Amino acid sequence: MTIVTQQTVQMKQVSRGNYLMRNVLKHNVVFNEGSKGDAAYILTEGKIEISGNIEGHKKVFAILKPISIFGEMALFLDEGVRTATAIALEDSKVIVVTKEDLEEFMRESPKVIASIITVLVSRLKTTTRKAMRVPSIGLGVVRILDLFSTCGKLELKYDPTVKTLSETFVTTPEKIEQYILGLADQGLLAIGRDPGDVRIIRIRERDMLNAVMQKKD
């Protein structure tokens, strides 16, 4: 069992004053599995271990080196619970990225954030498949679609999107289709075909997350 002492964290503003740089000492915890998540992290220096508890045993999902993003579920789900533990294997530096930070960054650099979305989805599939507990899959789907729309990506191939989302949130394709068809019934999405007769999802509402939240009120 690893004994972790009270960590000393230094924080300073970086990148035009919008982000925080956090220094994490060797063996200190960035976040624990089961804790509430409100930010993601970009590793710029050092090495981070991502692990989880599988059937009572520690399972190392990944050893991250710069530049890597982790803790990304917090950017997609409200009341998200951390599905893994992140520990510094050596003195490290991470940039703290909140949901608000991400939204601002998307407005400034949509091409870069489109690449980050690809990384996030891939990471979600490979590191949280066995242990993830998602409090709101529907809202997670909305958040991902909202990120694509913010980047100007308004048409998605239907079958690959359903498959990726089902693997990401560890659920069935049928369940994802229920959420997508529900959004279509609300007029936020349209299901159609492209000129090549490939089934697609058209995002009709650019600010999808806000639109969904307003409908809940």
Oligomer: single chain
Percent of residues in helices comes to 25-40%
Low-pLDDT runs? 1-17, 127-134
CATH superfamily of the largest domain, please? Jelly Rolls
Round the Cα radius of gyration to an integer and report it: 18 Å
Query: Globular, elongated, flat, extended or rod-shaped: what is the shape?
Result: elongated
Terminal-residue CA separation = 46 Å
How much β-strand is present in the residues? 25-35%
Count of the separate structural domains: 2
What is the SS-derived class? alpha+beta
Overview of the structural elements:
Helix 1 (99-108) packs across helix 2 (110-127). The longest helix has 18 residues, at 110-127. This protein has helices at residues 99-108, 110-127, 137-150, 158-168, 173-185, 208-216; strands at residues 10-14, 19-24, 29-31, 40-54, 57-64, 68-70, 85-97, 155-157, 189-193, 199-203. By secondary structure, it is of the alpha+beta class. The protein folds into 2 domains: 10-98, Sandwich (Jelly Rolls), CATH 2.60.120.10; 137-216, Arc Repressor Mutant, subunit A, CATH 1.10.10.
